[in-house]
Design goal:
alpha/beta; 11-stranded parallel β-sheet
């Protein structure tokens, strides 16, 4: 029976993928196909005029739109100070939200929304959004494997090294091509490596554990989550509550939103990378220190809070707290 169910699921998924591919006349059949199909299925890419445009350069506005969709962001920032965006632009809402979520900052009073974004610029934005380099001892010497390491800008080196060291970017032919424009297909592949699953089900009680997860809906009560993959509490959670019970995350829990995030169990690293977020850990100790359930280290953005309480109601002093630098 299990084999039959598995075969049915494979057939359904194959039909779904075929349907998405048929929607675009230029859907490639190469290294980027799966990532592009996943990007469409997860609402990151929608194409234009029946085309997915895989070889087109990704613009800053398009990347902003993808990041907003990926994280489920809804909050807007006042971007009236920027001279190259107006409320009538199709990308105005996305740029406003991207600025609000800290993905884009602009320069010289401009956001340059219609300019292509370079590979290293895109990597910096991704590192910023997912907190890849926050308070992490990144060894930039890993970039020496690329023959064009000298082309990597100093301001981007730490973030680029972080995304490379984590295996999300590998370069091509021994080169990273940091100043080349990133294409839509290339970016889809990087996003597919960063986030495998998106949680939008308001009734979800658990999450997949074989890939990085983005949670885009709030008021979830998750139970028994055990994963070695990154879990991101995205902007779509908003000003709501979310809890993990009896859970163990042996990687990183990245917190971008939430009125109150309640943690019960064991967590390796908690990164609170956005302001005004409250995280609480219910720490349950065991005699065997190796099995002691706790938060090993937490990185805290300014204006956010993290507190832990041990069984006896006294503050837990075992958690190392570090102010997150962004």
């Amino acid at each position: 029976m299990k084999k039959i169910i598995a075969l049915l699921l494979v057939c359904i998924m194959s039909m779904s993928i075929s349907a998405f591919a048929a929607d675009f006349s230029d859907m490639p059949d190469d290294w980027s196909t799966t990532a592009l199909l996943n990007a469409v299925e997860n609402g990151l890419l929608s194409g234009s005029g029946g085309k997915i445009l895989p070889s087109d350069n990704l613009t800053r506005a398009q990347m902003a739109t993808i990041m907003v969709r990926a994280c489920g962001a809804t909050g807007d920032a006042d971007i009236s100070e920027f001279t190259d965006v107006t409320p009538n632009d199709w990308f105005y809402g996305s740029m406003s939200k991207a600025v609000a979520m800290g993905a884009f900052n602009g320069s010289g009073g401009m956001l340059n929304p219609e300019s292509p974004i370079s590979r290293q610029e895109a990597f910096v934005v991704l590192s910023r959004v997912f907190g890849l380099a926050i308070n992490t001892k990144v060894d930039t010497s890993i970039l020496n494997q690329f023959t064009d390491v000298a082309d990597i800008a100093q301001w981007a080196a730490n973030d680029v090294a972080a995304i490379v060291s984590l295996g999300y970017v590998g370069g091509n032919g021994g080169m990273l091509n940091p100043n080349a424009n990133i294409t839509r297909a290339e970016f889809a592949v990087v996003m597919d490596r960063l986030i495998k699953y998106y949680i939008d089900d308001e009734n979800a009680t658990t999450i997949p554990t074989d890939g990085n997860v983005m949670i885009r809906v709030g008021n979830l009560k998750l139970d028994g989550v055990e994963t070695e993959k990154m879990v991101v509490i995205g902007d779509g959670v908003g000003d709501t509550e979310l809890s993990f019970a009896n859970s163990k995350i042996d990687s990183e829990l990245v917190v971008r939103a939430g009125k109150r995030i309640a943690l019960d169990g064991r967590y390796q690293h908690v990164k609170i990378i956005r302001p005004n977020v409250r995280v609480e850990g219910d720490i349950r100790r065991k005699e065997d220190s190796y099995e002691a359930e706790k938060v090993h280290k937490v990185y805290i953005c300014k204006n956010s809070t993290f507190s832990t309480m041990a069984n006896l109601g006294t503050p837990d002093q075992s958690t190392e707290k570090v102010e997150a630098e962004q």
